[in-house]
Amino acid sequence: MTTIRGSKTLTQQYAVIFAAVSSYWICSIGMVFLNKYLLSSPDLKLDAPLFVTWYQCLVTVVLCFLCSYLSKLFPNYIKFPEMKLDAKLSREVLPLSFIFVGMIAFNNLCLKYVGVSFYYVGRSLTTVFNVACSYVILGQQTSKPAIVCCLVIIGGFLLGVNQEDVAGSLSIIGVVYGVLASLFVALNAIFTKKTLGFVGDSIWRLTMYNNLNALFLFLPLMLFNGELGVIPYFDQITSVYFWSMMSLSGFFGFIMGYVTGWQIQVTSPLTHNISGTAKAAAQTVMAVIIWSEVKLMLWWASNLIVLIGSAAYTYVQQKAMERDFETNRVNRSKSTETEVPLLPVHDRSSSRLTEESKLV
Questions:
Q1: Using one digit for the tens of pLDDT, what is the confidence trace for 163-182?
Q2: Residue 353, domain member (yes or no)
Q3: Is residue 349 part of a domain?
Q4: Is residue 144 situated within a structural domain?
Q5: 312 with 272: CB under 8 angstroms?
Q6: 212: containing domain
Q7: C-beta pairs of 242-245 under 8 Å, 24+ apart in sequence
Q8: Domain membership flag for residue 345
Q9: Which of 165, 181, 234, 319 could bridge to 106 as Cys pair (CB 3.0-4.6 Å)?
Q10: How many percent of the chain have pLDDT more than 70?
Q11: Are 128 and 310 in contact (CB under 8 A)?
Q12: Model confidence over 65-77: pLDDT tens digits?
């Protein structure tokens, strides 16, 4: 009975993880292609990447309050946490919001200047930054094999940059934005895990406060970037099609806020970053096929090197976690054996039965 129930629970856990990762892949790939269309399509030509991101945040906040309201009207059909404006909670989430703004701003700026196919390599340093940030912020040590894997990823990144330069399509500013995006993605994963407790582990509340703070944080950035003077003169500012596409991107942003937090919550910041890297690899192949791009073998090799380095890093970290788990289990077992002789014989028997009943 214990085995059956245990396996069922494990199956349910894997099902939840698969659902979270799959949802993240579908929403993330869809949003990348849609944002690329909004930022560099000849049909729109809107030179305001921060405004696009700001509008996505606005749609997310509106949808959070709308879903909260609908859940009160139809409690049997819609389950959504109640949304209230709390200045204290907003301040608690603010550190994450700064990182969140940097992450999505640099993401979109990178996407504006580089193609979707190179976006994978341009953003491939997330794992490397995750190791560095985990050491600096959390004090977590990294093994030598894991560091070697990170060096492999860096090598693939540099080769990819070189091949873009050879092809004459390298954007230095795009690469810089990609590196900064990688840094903020790593920071976002770590701080999301730390900040969830302030909002009662509610991903939706965290999403709402994050995007609400971002609405105010983006305004000075848009002013500094000159976008507030560009938007009123945009020739499609009254176009229904333009606002439909913008709203659709906002909806994707709303869903992404949830599936990203969901994936981090059911896995870990490391797994989230590895999942993002693998997703980007599939995204690259799709972009090359869709736009009929011709790439050199070394260009493909750079993508493959990054993927291999990321996969090897995942394997190394997984083995390290298994060793830590086994060590902790042995230590707990030794501690239990030390305490058992202190109990009378009948107490040891009843204690053992009690512990076995917990496993059923």
A1: 888 877 788 898 899 899 98
A2: no
A3: no
A4: yes
A5: no
A6: 2-329
A7: 242/44, 242/46, 245/34, 245/37, 245/38, 245/44
A8: no
A9: 181
A10: 89
A11: no
A12: 999 999 999 888 8
